[in-house]
C-alpha cells in the first residue's frame, strides 16, 4: 500500500526542539535468529547488519556474529535499541557474506 507517516509531536510545534535532547520513549529488542534457503553452493561466512534510521538521536548500526552457512544460518543474537522517536524509525536488516576485502550483499528487508 501507500500512505504517509505523520510527523511526531515535537515537529508540529512552532519551535522545533532539538531531537538530541528528547528522552528515550521506546525500547525495541530484535532477535536475529536464522536465515533459511540461502542456496549457497559452498559454505560462506555470513553476518547480518542491523541499521536503525530515524531522528539523529535514533541512528544505530550493529552487526551480528559471523557464522559459516550453506543453506541455513543460525545467528541467535539479540539487539536492543532505545528510541526517542519510534514512530519515524525504520530498521534495515541486511544479510552479507564476508570476503577478505569486502562484504557482499545477499539481501535486505526494511521494517
- As a percent range, the share of helical residues equals under 10%
Low-confidence stretches: none
Structural category is: mainly beta
Described by strand count, sense and barrel closure, the largest sheet is: 5 strands, antiparallel
SSE ordering:
HEEEEEEE
Number of helices: 1
- State the end-to-end CA separation: 14 Å
Q: What fraction strand?
A: over 45%
Q: Gyration radius, to the nearest Å?
A: 17 Å
Shape from CA axes? Answer: elongated
Nearest-integer average pLDDT = 86
Q: What is the β-strand count?
A: 7
What keywords describe this structure?
five-stranded antiparallel beta sheet; 111 residues; mainly beta; two-stranded antiparallel ribbon
How are the SSEs placed, and which strands pair?
Elements: H1 9-12, E1 26-36, E2 44-53, E3 60-63, E4 67-69, E5 72-83, E6 90-98, E7 103-110
Antiparallel strand pairs: 1-5, 2-3, 2-4, 2-6, 6-7
General description of the model:
- The protein has about 110 residues and is mainly beta.
- It is built from one helix and seven strands, in the order H-E-E-E-E-E-E-E.
- The chain has one helix at about 10; strands at about 25-35, 45-55, 60-65, 65-70, 70-85, 90-100, 105-110.
- Strands 2, 3, 4, 6 and 7 form a five-stranded antiparallel beta sheet that branches. A two-stranded antiparallel ribbon has the order 1-5.
- The longest helix is centred in the N-terminal third of the chain and has 4 residues, at about 10.
- It starts with 8 loop residues before the first helix and ends with a strand.
Amino acid at each position: 500500500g501507500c500512505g504517509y507517516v505523520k510527523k511526531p509531536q515535537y515537529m508540529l510545534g512552532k519551535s522545533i526542539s532539538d531531537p538530541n535532547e528528547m528522552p528515550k520513549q521506546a525500547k525495541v529488542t530484535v532477535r536475529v535468529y536464522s536465515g533459511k534457503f540461502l542456496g549457497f553452493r559452498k559454505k560462506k561466512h555470513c553476518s547480518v547488519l542491523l541499521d536503525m534510521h530515524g531522528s539523529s538521536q535514533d541512528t544505530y548500526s550493529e552487526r551480528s556474529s559471523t557464522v559459516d552457512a550453506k543453506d541455513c544460518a543460525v545467528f541467535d543474537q539479540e539487539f536492543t535499541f532505545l528510541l526517542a522517536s519510534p514512530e519515524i524509525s525504520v530498521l534495515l536488516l541486511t544479510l552479507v557474506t564476508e570476503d577478505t576485502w569486502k562484504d557482499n550483499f545477499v539481501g535486505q528487508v526494511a521494517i
